[in-house]
Amino acid sequence: QVQLVESGGGSVQSGGSLRLSCAASGYTYSGYYMGWFRQAPGKEREGVAVIDSDGSISYADSVKGRFTISRDNAKNTLYLQMNSLKPEDTAMYYCAAEVPAFYTGGYYLRNYNEFKYWGQGTQVTVSS
């Protein structure tokens, strides 16, 4: 049984930082494609960053230069370091996992439905 558990969300002021973590269990973590997605109230879920099993990374344009995705295969954990946070970053953030197929990182960012496994989410609120 694949399980993903996010943590690290909270409330910060604009310009602040947060680090999200996603603890994975129940499968061979190192071989899976992993990603962070977010969903604000009334909006569709959108891709934030994805990382392949070999470390290849893709970011949404809105977070490039501010967010950093990483994975620690020894700890079965995915991270998202978020710096220079803006009010528009406010959303529920979700960790996702999927068996990799022959798609690009950009494709996975745009197609969250390709991910089969999801965590319960962690809320990030950025105030101005």
In brief, what are we looking at here?
This protein is 5% helix and 48% strand. By secondary structure, it is mainly β.
Structure overview:
- The structure is a single chain.
- The protein has 128 residues and is mainly β.
- The protein is built from one helix and eleven strands.
- The strands form two sheets. Strands 2, 4, 5, 6, 9, 10 and 11 form a seven-stranded mixed sheet that branches.
- Strand 4 (33-39) and strand 5 (46-51) form a beta hairpin.
- The N and C termini lie far apart (40 Å).
H-E string: EEEEEEEEEHEE
DSSP helix count? Answer: 1
Indicate the structural class: mainly beta
Largest sheet: 7 strands, mixed
Mean of the pLDDT scores?
95
Query: Alpha-carbon distance between the termini?
Result: 40 Å
Gyration radius over CA = 13 Å
Low-confidence stretches: none
Helix share of residues?
Answer: under 10%
Shape: globular
Q: In total, how many beta strands?
A: 11
Describe the oligomeric state of these chains in a short phrase.
Answer: single chain
The percent range for strand residues is: over 45%
Could you name the key traits of this structure?
128 residues; mainly beta; 7-stranded mixed sheet
Topology:
Elements: E1 3-7, E2 10-13, E3 18-25, E4 33-39, E5 46-51, E6 57-59, E7 67-72, E8 77-82, E9 91-98, H1 105-110, E10 117-118, E11 122-127
